[in-house]
Write a structure and sequence with these properties.
The chain contains eight helices and no strands. It has helices at residues 7-21, 26-33, 37-44, 53-62, 69-74, 97-103, 110-126, 128-134.
Length: 135
């Protein structure tokens, strides 16, 4: 006999699916939503009282869901994912796997990722022998 899952279980399942889809660790989700890891864990485990409004917003922000998605899930519906990030507006060298990997860290703002790419390029320029050995 199938039993109806409770709203918090549905939320935990939806969060897990989205986290995996975005290729994030739970600590990344906590950081992206500016939410305590322990709070996030308690929500996933169904512990604690009703989820507060700011916490719902933090979850939606971290998992890139449209506003109100947590309430929709708790009511039995499906979340609305936000559009996927646009291609970089900065010139990333698609042939360089390190630059691609840096750009793929979408929990970081675009300008921060670009700053890391610039640092990486300076490092490659200043240490050519080291990078030839690994190529």
């Amino acid at each position: 006999m199938l039993t109806e899952r409770n709203p918090r279980e549905r939320l935990a399942d939806a969060m897990e699916r989205r986290r995996l889809e975005l290729r994030m660790r739970w600590k990344d989700v906590a950081a992206a939503g500016d939410i305590a890891y322990e709070t996030l864990r308690a929500i996933r485990k169904g512990k604690g009282d009703e989820i507060r409004g700011l916490t719902k917003v933090a979850i939606e922000t971290a998992l890139r869901w449209a506003p109100g998605s947590v309430d929709v899930i708790l009511s039995g519906g499906e979340p609305t994912p936000l559009e996927q990030p646009q291609p970089p507006s900065f010139p990333v060298n698609a042939a360089d796997p390190v630059e691609r990997d840096i750009w793929a860290i979408t929990v970081l703002p675009e300008d921060i990722r670009w700053a890391y790419i610039q640092m990486y390029r300076r490092h490659v320029r200043d240490n050519p022998d080291e990078h030839r050995r690994h190529a």
